[in-house]
Amino acid sequence: MREFPGTRPRRLRRNAALRALVREDRLSVDDLIWPVFVRDGENVLEEVPSMPGVVRRSVDRIVEAAEQAAELGIRCICIFPYTDNALKTDACEEAWNPENLSNRATRAIRAAVPDLLVMTDIALDPYNAQGHDGIVRDGIILNDESVEALVRMAVAQADAGADILGPSDMMDNRIGAMRDALEAAGHSDTCIMSYSAKYASAFYGPFRDAVGASGALKGDKKTYQLDPLNAEEAERMIARDLAEGADMVMVKPGMPYLDIVRRVKARFRVPTFAYQVSGEYAMIRAAAANGWIDGEKAMMESLMAFRRAGCDGVLTYFAPEAAGLIARGWE
Ligand code: PBG
To answer: Which residues carry out catalysis (predicted)?
Structure first.
């Protein structure tokens, strides 16, 4: 390379056309997965106070959201249920009820918008009187009993027509057990996107409000979710879940863990996703609402950062808004 003034890197930043010409990557609507919250009732749209702009929708209004997603070119919608407290038990039976909210929403979306991919979440917390992702006895989260329940849940979701199952529970041996059960039930085409590197994070706070799990949860999730200081352990979990039959892997939360995304993508070269979680969403929205940052620009920059780090896609509550901006030619 010549020394300055022979090289002037700013030459390539001089105008929009040059910047576009040399841009290394693109954010595409194909990269966005939209998480949505479903609740009981008819014609209900209910604000989630800690996630401004995000609503819980009854099944009929979820179908409308799915139609909107398809119009925007979004490929995949991810369903999270807000379950009535009366349906929460210690054994979590509602989790594998074929008629539970998540399964009803899946069937309704499949019928109305057949080309939209439906992703579902596998963990017991929305159905658990104890608020944990696994079954609790005497204050202990039981691994193997939880996996049995999670497997039932996985098969019920696949029966309902889910395309992608997202086990977010972090129990040991769940991916292999689910894969075997899915094969046995004739669901050999059902994809698994494993929440493999899921950290014990304070950034899930608003989500727990959104699914109504905040009140029930006693203690924390540190006996199953990862320690924020551990990166090698995340790699081990990814390797394990791939060996057990995961098709895609996820890192969660997103922005504070982009280094993990980079490590995972570089080492495993498999479809890698990140979840820009509720707390990340709430931070950007809150700062924007106060006039402290430009919300649209911060949102798009955050999504571009996921691409640059190596994500094949990102789960984000911003999906419809970002898709709209991309369609209008955002740079
Ligand atoms: C449930 C689950 C959580 C999230 C997705 N699935 C919360 C948790 O583990 O406590 C968090 C999503 C978000 O914060 O947006 N296991």
So the answer is: 198 (schiff-base intermediate with substrate), 252 (schiff-base intermediate with substrate)
Q: What is Dmax (Cα atoms) for the chain?
A: 72
Per-residue tokens: 330: 């955002």
Residue identified by tokens 């979306």 is 109
Cα 125 to ligand 1 centre (Å): 9
Do the beta carbons of residue 151 and residue 143 sit within 8 Å? no
Within 8 A by CB and 6+ apart from 293, the residues are 284, 287
Q: How far is the CA of 217 from the centre of ligand 1 (A)?
A: 13
pLDDT band at 208 (very low <50, low <70, confident <90, very high): confident
CA distance 11 to 124: 55
Model pLDDT for residues 237-290, shown as the tens digit of each residue? 999 999 999 999 999 999 999 999 999 999 999 999 999 999 999 999 999 999
Is the C-beta atom of 208 inside 6 A of ligand 1?
Answer: yes
pLDDT digits (tens, 9 = 90+) for 71-108: 999 999 999 999 999 999 999 999 999 999 999 999 99
Q: Collapse the DSSP code of 163 into the 3-class scheme (helix H, G, I; strand E, B; otherwise coil) and give the result.
A: coil
How deeply is 186 buried, as exposed, middle or buried, from its count of CB atoms within 10 A (0-12, 13-18, 19+)? Answer: exposed
For 20-75, the pLDDT digits (tens) are 999 999 999 999 999 999 999 999 999 999 999 999 999 999 999 999 999 999 99
- The preferred substitution site among 168, 211, 217 for testing ligand 1, maximizing ligand atoms within 8 Å of CB, is 168
Q: Is 265 a catalytic residue?
A: no
Q: In whole angstroms, give the CA distance from residue 107 to residue 127.
A: 20
198 as an active site residue: the answer is yes
Q: Is 96 in the pocket of ligand 1 (CB under 6 A)?
A: no
The answer to ipTM > 0.90 is: yes
Long-range contacts of 217-220 (CB under 8 A, 24+ apart): 217/125, 217/130, 217/131, 217/132, 218/130, 218/131, 219/139
Domains in the chain: ranges and CATH:
28-327 (3.20.20.70)
Nearest to 80, CA basis, from 242, 170, 209: 209
